[in-house]
Structure formats: C-alpha cells, structure tokens
Amino acid sequence: MNTKFEELEIKLETKQAISDLGLIDLTPIQALAIPKMIDGLDFIAEAQTGTGKTFAFAIPIIEKIKLVKETQSLVLCPTRELAIQVYNEFLKLVKYQKDILVAPIVGGESYERQFTALKKKPHIIIGTPGRIIDHLNRGTIDFSKLTQLTFDEADEMLKMGFKEDLEAILQNAPKERQTTLFSATIPQEIKRIAKEYQNNSSIIKAESETLTATKIIQNYYVVKKEDKMKLLERLLDISNMDSNIIFANTKREVDEITEFLREKKFNANSLHGDMKQKERSYVTSNFRNKQLNILVATDVAARGLDIKNVGLVINYDYPQEDEIYVHRIGRTGRAGSEGLAYTLLTPRTEHKIKQLEKFTKTTINKLEIPSEKIITKALENKLIISLKKEVVANTNTYDKIINEFEQEGISKDALLNALLDKLVPSKKVYEVIEEPKQKKSNLSDFDNKKKDRKDSNRKPSKLKDNAVLVKVNLGRKDKITPLIILDMFGSIYNIRNNNIGDIKHYQTYTVVELSSKGHSFINNKTFKYKGKNIKIEEV
Ligand code: CDP
Ligand code: MG
C-alpha cells in the first residue's frame, strides 16, 4: 500500500498545499525520507531522477521550522536554476504558512534584494555556494543558529570544486545539526566524503532495478563526427515533442549547435555558464512555458531541473562521466511520464555504450539513421495527429465558405485536398549522411553477430502482466528497426510506446510484445510497408 500525504503527521497547512497540487500518494523515497528527516536523523537518500526528492526534503524542513527570527535550514544546490526551482517548490508548500520565510540566495541576482531578504533572517535559505560565501564574507548572512543542512544533487556538491566552498560555509555553522544528502547517483567515494559532514549516517534507497527511470526509452546512433549536425536536424524534424533538450560538452559547441538550428528555422536557444544570469533565467523560463522548444545546454541543465513534459533528450556528445548521462536523460521521463533519449556516438566512441549499459543496468538500443522516407512519414503522422486534435476541439463552422465553393462546382474533396497541400510540409532535401565505417573490433565474427542481434533488440520487457505477443511479417530482411515498429504501431493503431515491450527481429518477421491495452488497439486495418501488405497475428 502506498502512503498518502493525508496520513502523514505534518501540519494541516502543508497537507492542504500538497492537496492543492493534486498530489495524493507519496513516492517511495518520500515515504522513506520524510519520517526519518522529521526525526532529525542524518542520511544519504538515493533515488532515480524525477521521483520527488525535492518534496522529500522540503516537507520535513518546513515541518521542523520554529517561528523565531533565526535562519534554521540551508539547502545547497549546484546550479542557480536548480536553486530557484527548489525555492519555488518551497513556496508552493508554504502557501498557507506565510510566516515561514524562504529566501533564494544565488549568484547573478541583485545584492540589494538579497541584503533586504537576509536582514529578516529567513527561516530557510536555498542557495548556491558561491553567493552564500560572498554573504558570509560580508557578514550579511548568519548561520549561527543553523540546525539543518541539505545537499541536493549531493554527489555534485561534494566534488572537488565545491568541497572547499563547503568547508568555508560549515566553519560558520554549528556542529550540532542534521545533515542530509539527496541524489540519483552517489558514488562510493562521495559516501566516504559525506561521513566528514554527517553523524551516524545511514543510506536510504528507493528500490529500483535500474538507475534510470524505466519509462525512458534509450537509443543511440553511430554517425561520423562531421555528420552529427545533419543527424540532429533529422531527429528534431521527426520529434513530436514540444520540449527537447540537447546536451553538448562545451559552451562553444552549445552556441554552434544553436546557431545551426536557428539557421534551419528551429526554435532553439542556448543555456550555459558564460551567459548572464538574466539571459539564463529568460531562456529557462521560456523553455518551461513552452515558448522555446529546443534547449541546447551544457551540464548546467543536467542536474535537477524538473520541467514538465520534456519529451526528448539528445546527447550530442558522449557525456564525460556515466553519472552525467543518468542526470541528463533524467530531464525526461519525470514523475512517471514517458521519455525518449538519443545519444550520438562516433565509431570511435561506440564501445562506450557497453560500459554505460552496465552502469545504468539498462539496454540502450542502436538505431539506424532515419531516411528521408521515414522522416516524411513521421511528418505526415505529426500532421494527422494535430488535425485529429483539431477535429475534436474545433467548434467553428465554415458552411458559408464551403457553400461558396460548392456553388462554383468545387467539391468538398477537392477543397480538402487543396487545404492539405498547404499543410503537408514540403519535401525537404537532407544533406547526405554517410554510413560510418565500423571500427575494427577484437570480437570474433560470431560475437559480432551476437552483438548485432542484441543491438536490434530492446531492453528487457517492461510490461508486467498480460502481455500479448504478436508477429509482424517484416524482419531483418526488410531492414526493420525497433524505431520503425514503434512508429508503425503508433501511427497506424495509436498504440503508445509504454504499451510496447520487447521487440525481437528475425530474418523475415518480428515478434512484438504488447500490453493487453496495446493489443486491444489492434484492428483489421490493412496497410503496406514498402509496397508489402502487412499482416499482424497473435503468436
Ligand atoms: O529531485 P527528483 O529528480 O527526484 O524529482 P523532483 O524534481 O522533486 O520532481 C518530481 C516531480 O514529481 C515534480 O514535478 C512533482 O510535482 C512530482 N511529484 C512529487 O514530487 N511527489 C509526488 N508524490 C508525486 C509527484
Ligand atoms: Mg532533484
């Protein structure tokens, strides 16, 4: 049984604020962390990205605040954007407790406002280390009454660069305090460092077999370095998503990608550490409210950001550490929603996938570079889906206009065709992407074949009960890939990806695992693929 917020022993005002957000059940990490934190214990909390770690610490912090004019709690975050987001989450929770003061103290923002806020000795401070140290040096912040310290994205916070900052902050805080750490990834080395800051610490973990949220479908492409931008263009043309994030390893690369995408008329913008805070906030807020569709970012955006409905994450570069991969793709698939992640690899970096699969305990599928034909089909599907929505939502009638056409002898069909002609995207000619040469590997031929077979299969079934196997008369011979199958089932039968489990390709056919819900969408509709009549039958 899930614990419900209603059953928690916390203030009614907090419960009401949570209920206003429409939240009912606690996530597993919340159920573990909240009572422990209210009890004042030190711990390290590990749980996948997007599983509600923010409220797991924010609810108990608010619960413990005493209404005296003292700063009692400090939450440290690695980036300004994350600190501001966490601050906003706190504001939601103290909606009915206006006497609890929460202040964001981050770099790039006006000092004057922060001086004023700090004079009031806010009960809770959410901040980034740099600016907090700045205030400590100026004597404008007072941690002498601090009873609680939380590290969000703890492993990042305890890394070399930040560690010195922490020492400076902790020199000014009482030793007797609760210290809690939260992150999706906490390597052993960091757990060891954490001991220096905690007393009798324990580790709490929300049970999960994989490190990444299971609803994120992970894929990769192998492409020559010089063709990466061209592939990016194709992938974004296909993407159905309102929100897409592209991660690159350097600021320069981020700007180059944004420039390229803008030339191609995509709605894209950059986010990286060299930008002024005003620009950073502007870009993040536009991306949050969907005015901006494509965010091209360095890892400043990899940690913690909770933006609703980020449909697609593309790793333009292979991330420098495996942990970063987990956090980057964790920007999608949040709070149980579906997500899609692509990683672009060159023949030189392809081998890294194995290591990443081991680390994340998932399978990452190799996909074929989408051809013009597939892209055209995907764009058509996009149009059909948006028109279907329009048909349902539309309340206007244009009888008068239609009549005028009919009087001139123009049929509704002819009119419809003319309208569609305007709407169907004109065929785009893509720059050629060469098939990259396979890097020589040490594997024997047999192993290579085995590897190919594995590549064409998706991760182990994520469908639990009542899965149904169906056979499609298209196989490896037809150059079929999991993406084509997903696309086909989605566009023809409207079956969403989360209702599709294992896809196994054989020479002449493919076996697809469907949830019973997915299976119920299969009907007698006939269709062709590359001129071949497609048959789908239960196995
Ligand atoms: O920090 P973490 O990556 O674990 O996730 P988060 O940033 O706290 O985001 C969790 C998302 O799940 C937010 O959008 C919450 O509104 C939502 N959520 C939650 O926090 N708690 C629940 N019990 C249910 C949903
Ligand atoms: Mg978080």
Explain this structure to me?
The protein folds into 4 domains: 5-210, 3-Layer(aba) Sandwich (Rossmann fold), CATH 3.40.50; 213-370, Rossmann fold; 373-423, no CATH class; 452-538. Helices cover 39% and strands 16% of the residues. It has helices at 12-20, 28-38, 53-64, 80-93, 111-119, 129-138, 154-157, 160-170, 188-195, 228-238, 251-263, 277-288, 322-329, 352-360, 372-393, 399-407, 412-423, 445-455, 482-493, 516-520; strands at 43-46, 73-76, 102-105, 124-127, 148-152, 178-183, 202-205, 216-222, 244-247, 268-271, 294-297, 312-315, 339-345, 365-366, 468-472, 500-505, 510-514, 528-529, 532-533, 536-538. The chain has a 7-stranded parallel sheet with strand order 3-4-2-5-6-1-7, sandwiched between helices. Helix 6 packs parallel to helix 8 (160-170). Cytidine-5'-diphosphate is lined by residues 23, 25-27, 30, 47, 49-55, 304, 306, 334-335.
